[in-house]
Recover the amino acids of this structure.
Protein backbone atom coordinates (compact mmCIF):
# COMPACT_ATOMS: atom_id res chain seq x y z
CA UNK A 1 0.00 0.00 0.00
CA UNK A 2 1.72 3.21 -1.17
CA UNK A 3 1.27 6.56 0.57
CA UNK A 4 -1.34 7.82 -1.89
CA UNK A 5 -3.47 4.68 -1.55
CA UNK A 6 -3.08 4.88 2.22
CA UNK A 7 -4.22 8.51 2.33
CA UNK A 8 -7.16 7.71 0.05
CA UNK A 9 -8.33 4.78 2.17
CA UNK A 10 -8.16 6.82 5.37
CA UNK A 11 -9.90 9.85 3.86
CA UNK A 12 -12.82 7.75 2.55
CA UNK A 13 -13.06 5.89 5.87
CA UNK A 14 -13.04 9.16 7.79
CA UNK A 15 -15.69 10.94 5.73
CA UNK A 16 -17.79 8.01 4.51
CA UNK A 17 -17.99 9.87 1.21
CA UNK A 18 -16.00 9.76 -2.01
CA UNK A 19 -16.86 13.41 -2.70
CA UNK A 20 -15.63 14.62 0.69
CA UNK A 21 -12.49 12.49 0.42
CA UNK A 22 -11.73 13.96 -3.00
CA UNK A 23 -12.08 17.49 -1.61
CA UNK A 24 -9.71 16.72 1.24
CA UNK A 25 -7.15 15.14 -1.08
CA UNK A 26 -7.48 17.91 -3.72
CA UNK A 27 -8.29 15.45 -6.47
CA UNK A 28 -11.30 14.34 -8.50
CA UNK A 29 -13.84 11.70 -7.47
CA UNK A 30 -12.85 9.34 -10.27
CA UNK A 31 -9.30 9.15 -8.88
CA UNK A 32 -10.61 8.29 -5.42
CA UNK A 33 -12.95 5.63 -6.82
CA UNK A 34 -10.12 4.13 -8.87
CA UNK A 35 -7.87 3.96 -5.79
CA UNK A 36 -10.61 2.28 -3.77
CA UNK A 37 -11.14 -0.36 -6.43
CA UNK A 38 -7.41 -0.96 -6.79
CA UNK A 39 -7.02 -1.43 -3.02
CA UNK A 40 -9.83 -3.96 -2.98
CA UNK A 41 -8.23 -5.79 -5.88
CA UNK A 42 -4.84 -5.80 -4.14
CA UNK A 43 -6.25 -7.18 -0.88
CA UNK A 44 -8.79 -9.40 -2.69
CA UNK A 45 -11.54 -8.33 -0.27
CA UNK A 46 -14.34 -5.78 -0.28
CA UNK A 47 -13.27 -2.87 1.92
CA UNK A 48 -16.22 -0.52 1.38
CA UNK A 49 -19.97 -1.05 1.29
CA UNK A 50 -21.58 1.37 -1.17
CA UNK A 51 -25.01 2.83 -0.44
CA UNK A 52 -27.10 5.89 -1.30
CA UNK A 53 -25.60 7.97 1.53
CA UNK A 54 -21.98 7.21 0.65
CA UNK A 55 -19.76 4.34 1.79
CA UNK A 56 -19.02 2.53 5.04
CA UNK A 57 -16.23 0.18 5.96
CA UNK A 58 -16.90 -3.53 5.76
CA UNK A 59 -15.60 -5.90 8.45
CA UNK A 60 -12.43 -6.32 6.38
CA UNK A 61 -12.11 -2.53 6.06
CA UNK A 62 -12.46 -2.10 9.79
CA UNK A 63 -9.71 -4.66 10.38
CA UNK A 64 -7.47 -2.78 7.97
CA UNK A 65 -8.23 0.65 9.45
CA UNK A 66 -6.01 0.37 12.54
CA UNK A 67 -3.05 -0.83 10.49
CA UNK A 68 -3.55 1.95 7.95
CA UNK A 69 -3.58 4.59 10.69
CA UNK A 70 -0.40 3.18 12.20
CA UNK A 71 1.32 3.02 8.81
CA UNK A 72 0.47 6.63 8.05
CA UNK A 73 1.64 7.78 11.48
CA UNK A 74 4.83 5.77 11.14
CA UNK A 75 5.53 7.36 7.76
CA UNK A 76 5.09 10.86 9.20
CA UNK A 77 7.28 9.96 12.17
CA UNK A 78 9.99 8.43 9.98
CA UNK A 79 10.15 11.59 7.90
CA UNK A 80 10.32 13.74 11.04
CA UNK A 81 13.15 11.61 12.46
CA UNK A 82 15.13 11.70 9.21
CA UNK A 83 14.77 15.49 8.92
CA UNK A 84 15.43 16.23 12.59
CA UNK A 85 18.78 18.02 12.62
CA UNK A 86 18.23 19.56 16.03
CA UNK A 87 16.66 22.75 14.67
CA UNK A 88 13.26 23.63 16.13
CA UNK A 89 10.90 23.93 13.16
CA UNK A 90 8.02 22.22 11.40
CA UNK A 91 4.68 21.67 13.09
CA UNK A 92 3.51 20.97 16.62
CA UNK A 93 0.07 19.52 17.33
CA UNK A 94 -0.93 20.05 20.95
CA UNK A 95 -4.13 19.10 22.73
CA UNK A 96 -5.35 20.81 25.87
CA UNK A 97 -8.25 20.80 28.25
CA UNK A 98 -10.39 23.92 27.87
CA UNK A 99 -9.44 25.20 31.31
CA UNK A 100 -5.71 24.70 30.76
CA UNK A 101 -5.88 26.36 27.35
CA UNK A 102 -7.64 29.36 28.87
CA UNK A 103 -5.29 29.99 31.79
CA UNK A 104 -2.03 28.03 31.67
CA UNK A 105 -1.18 27.30 28.05
CA UNK A 106 -0.78 30.94 26.88
CA UNK A 107 2.04 31.44 29.38
CA UNK A 108 3.98 28.64 27.66
CA UNK A 109 2.91 29.18 24.05
CA UNK A 110 3.82 32.87 24.17
CA UNK A 111 7.54 32.39 24.96
CA UNK A 112 7.70 29.34 22.68
CA UNK A 113 6.27 31.24 19.71
CA UNK A 114 8.58 34.20 20.27
CA UNK A 115 11.60 31.89 20.46
CA UNK A 116 10.54 29.72 17.51
CA UNK A 117 8.20 31.76 15.24
CA UNK A 118 8.78 29.37 12.33
CA UNK A 119 6.99 26.50 14.09
CA UNK A 120 3.38 25.99 12.98
CA UNK A 121 1.39 25.39 16.15
CA UNK A 122 -2.00 23.68 16.17
CA UNK A 123 -4.00 23.56 19.40
CA UNK A 124 -7.05 21.35 19.83
CA UNK A 125 -9.16 21.62 22.98
CA UNK A 126 -11.42 18.95 24.44
CA UNK A 127 -12.07 16.75 27.46
CA UNK A 128 -9.33 14.47 28.75
CA UNK A 129 -10.81 11.25 27.35
CA UNK A 130 -11.12 12.71 23.86
CA UNK A 131 -7.60 14.16 23.89
CA UNK A 132 -6.10 10.83 24.91
CA UNK A 133 -7.84 9.18 21.96
CA UNK A 134 -6.30 11.75 19.61
CA UNK A 135 -2.81 11.13 21.02
CA UNK A 136 -3.25 7.38 20.70
CA UNK A 137 -4.44 7.80 17.10
CA UNK A 138 -1.37 9.96 16.26
CA UNK A 139 -3.56 12.99 15.58
CA UNK A 140 -1.77 14.95 18.34
CA UNK A 141 1.92 15.01 19.24
CA UNK A 142 1.12 15.59 22.92
CA UNK A 143 -1.74 16.74 25.10
CA UNK A 144 -2.32 18.45 28.43
CA UNK A 145 -4.79 16.27 30.30
CA UNK A 146 -5.89 15.61 33.87
CA UNK A 147 -4.23 12.78 35.75
CA UNK A 148 -3.93 10.09 36.75
CA UNK A 149 -2.69 8.33 33.60
CA UNK A 150 -3.09 4.60 33.20
CA UNK A 151 -2.47 3.39 29.65
CA UNK A 152 0.33 1.11 28.44
CA UNK A 153 0.88 3.09 25.22
CA UNK A 154 1.12 6.52 26.85
CA UNK A 155 3.72 8.29 28.99
CA UNK A 156 3.41 11.62 30.73
CA UNK A 157 4.91 14.00 33.21
CA UNK A 158 3.24 16.35 35.68
CA UNK A 159 3.46 20.00 34.63
CA UNK A 160 0.80 21.61 36.85
CA UNK A 161 -1.01 20.86 40.10
CA UNK A 162 -4.34 22.62 40.35
CA UNK A 163 -6.66 23.01 43.32
CA UNK A 164 -10.24 22.14 42.40
CA UNK A 165 -12.92 24.24 44.09
CA UNK A 166 -16.69 24.45 44.18
CA UNK A 167 -17.96 27.57 42.44
CA UNK A 168 -21.34 29.17 43.11
CA UNK A 169 -23.00 32.55 42.60
CA UNK A 170 -21.68 35.15 45.04
CA UNK A 171 -25.12 35.95 46.51
CA UNK A 172 -26.28 32.33 46.83
CA UNK A 173 -26.09 30.15 49.90
CA UNK A 174 -23.48 27.45 50.35
CA UNK A 175 -23.74 24.37 48.17
CA UNK A 176 -24.70 22.18 51.14
CA UNK A 177 -27.47 24.63 52.06
CA UNK A 178 -28.79 24.71 48.51
CA UNK A 179 -28.92 20.94 48.39
CA UNK A 180 -31.45 21.07 51.23
CA UNK A 181 -33.95 22.92 49.03
CA UNK A 182 -36.70 20.91 47.31
CA UNK A 183 -35.48 21.89 43.86
CA UNK A 184 -32.05 20.38 44.53
CA UNK A 185 -29.01 21.54 42.60
CA UNK A 186 -27.84 21.89 38.99
CA UNK A 187 -24.23 20.91 38.23
CA UNK A 188 -22.84 22.81 35.23
CA UNK A 189 -20.07 20.84 33.52
CA UNK A 190 -18.25 20.16 30.30
CA UNK A 191 -19.44 17.23 28.20
CA UNK A 192 -18.86 13.56 29.02
CA UNK A 193 -15.19 12.62 29.20
CA UNK A 194 -14.16 15.68 31.21
CA UNK A 195 -12.12 14.68 34.25
CA UNK A 196 -13.41 17.65 36.27
CA UNK A 197 -16.97 16.52 35.61
CA UNK A 198 -16.08 13.06 36.91
CA UNK A 199 -14.63 14.56 40.07
CA UNK A 200 -17.66 16.81 40.57
CA UNK A 201 -20.02 13.87 40.31
CA UNK A 202 -17.83 11.78 42.61
CA UNK A 203 -17.73 14.55 45.21
CA UNK A 204 -21.49 15.10 45.04
CA UNK A 205 -22.13 11.38 45.37
CA UNK A 206 -19.76 10.97 48.34
CA UNK A 207 -21.47 13.85 50.16
CA UNK A 208 -24.95 12.52 49.50
CA UNK A 209 -25.88 15.53 47.36
CA UNK A 210 -28.35 13.54 45.30
CA UNK A 211 -30.17 13.81 43.05
CA UNK A 212 -28.79 16.71 41.05
CA UNK A 213 -29.44 18.01 37.56
CA UNK A 214 -26.78 18.38 34.86
CA UNK A 215 -26.25 21.19 32.39
CA UNK A 216 -23.48 20.78 29.80
CA UNK A 217 -21.61 23.79 28.41
CA UNK A 218 -18.80 24.00 25.88
CA UNK A 219 -16.63 26.82 27.26
CA UNK A 220 -15.17 27.96 30.57
CA UNK A 221 -16.75 31.41 30.32
CA UNK A 222 -20.11 29.86 29.46
CA UNK A 223 -20.00 27.69 32.57
CA UNK A 224 -18.91 30.53 34.85
CA UNK A 225 -21.42 32.92 33.33
CA UNK A 226 -24.26 30.52 34.15
CA UNK A 227 -22.88 29.94 37.64
CA UNK A 228 -22.71 33.70 38.20
CA UNK A 229 -26.33 33.95 37.08
CA UNK A 230 -27.22 31.41 39.78
CA UNK A 231 -28.22 28.70 37.30
CA UNK A 232 -26.13 26.11 39.14
CA UNK A 233 -22.70 25.30 40.52
CA UNK A 234 -19.53 23.78 39.11
CA UNK A 235 -16.12 22.39 39.99
CA UNK A 236 -13.10 24.02 38.33
CA UNK A 237 -9.47 24.86 39.10
CA UNK A 238 -9.14 27.83 41.45
CA UNK A 239 -6.81 29.55 38.99
CA UNK A 240 -9.50 29.51 36.30
CA UNK A 241 -12.10 31.11 38.55
CA UNK A 242 -9.76 33.76 39.95
CA UNK A 243 -8.73 34.94 36.47
CA UNK A 244 -12.23 34.85 34.96
CA UNK A 245 -13.99 38.02 33.83
CA UNK A 246 -17.04 36.73 35.71
CA UNK A 247 -15.08 36.59 38.98
CA UNK A 248 -17.00 39.39 40.70
CA UNK A 249 -20.24 37.39 40.50
CA UNK A 250 -18.70 34.16 41.82
CA UNK A 251 -17.97 32.63 45.19
CA UNK A 252 -15.37 29.92 45.78
CA UNK A 253 -15.85 27.08 48.26
CA UNK A 254 -12.73 25.05 48.99
CA UNK A 255 -13.19 21.35 49.58
CA UNK A 256 -12.96 20.34 53.23
CA UNK A 257 -11.43 18.99 55.35
CA UNK A 258 -8.61 18.71 52.76
CA UNK A 259 -8.13 20.65 49.50
CA UNK A 260 -8.81 18.68 46.33
CA UNK A 261 -5.76 18.70 44.04
CA UNK A 262 -5.50 17.37 40.50
CA UNK A 263 -2.41 16.96 38.34
CA UNK A 264 -2.21 18.21 34.76
CA UNK A 265 0.01 15.96 32.66
CA UNK A 266 1.79 16.48 29.36
CA UNK A 267 1.16 13.14 27.64
CA UNK A 268 2.47 11.52 24.47
CA UNK A 269 2.65 8.06 22.94
CA UNK A 270 5.38 5.97 24.52
CA UNK A 271 6.61 4.78 21.11
CA UNK A 272 6.55 8.18 19.39
CA UNK A 273 9.69 9.90 18.18
CA UNK A 274 10.44 12.99 20.29
CA UNK A 275 12.10 15.53 18.04
CA UNK A 276 13.71 18.89 18.71
CA UNK A 277 10.43 20.80 18.45
CA UNK A 278 8.59 18.79 21.08
CA UNK A 279 11.67 18.82 23.33
CA UNK A 280 11.80 22.60 23.08
CA UNK A 281 8.11 22.88 23.88
CA UNK A 282 8.55 20.72 26.96
CA UNK A 283 11.52 22.82 28.06
CA UNK A 284 9.21 25.84 28.24
CA UNK A 285 7.28 24.12 31.02
CA UNK A 286 10.49 23.66 33.00
CA UNK A 287 11.25 27.36 32.62
CA UNK A 288 7.74 28.25 33.73
CA UNK A 289 8.18 26.01 36.77
CA UNK A 290 11.21 28.01 37.89
CA UNK A 291 9.40 31.33 37.42
CA UNK A 292 6.16 30.27 39.11
CA UNK A 293 7.38 28.20 42.06
CA UNK A 294 6.30 30.88 44.56
CA UNK A 295 2.69 31.17 43.39
CA UNK A 296 0.36 29.73 46.08
CA UNK A 297 -2.48 28.72 43.74
CA UNK A 298 -0.32 26.90 41.23
CA UNK A 299 2.38 24.32 41.53
CA UNK A 300 4.37 23.64 38.36
CA UNK A 301 6.47 20.52 38.52
CA UNK A 302 9.67 20.23 36.51
CA UNK A 303 10.39 16.61 35.72
CA UNK A 304 12.21 14.18 33.49
CA UNK A 305 12.12 14.30 29.72
CA UNK A 306 9.15 12.80 27.98
Amino acid sequence: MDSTALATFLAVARHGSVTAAALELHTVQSNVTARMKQLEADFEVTLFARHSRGVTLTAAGLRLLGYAQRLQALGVEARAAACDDGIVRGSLRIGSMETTAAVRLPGVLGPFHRAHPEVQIEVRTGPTAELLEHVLAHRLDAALVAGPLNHPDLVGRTVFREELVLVAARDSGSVSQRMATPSGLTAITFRQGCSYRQRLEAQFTSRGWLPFHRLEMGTVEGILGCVGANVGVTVLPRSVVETSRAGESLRIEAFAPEPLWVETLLVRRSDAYVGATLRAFQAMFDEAALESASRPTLQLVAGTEL
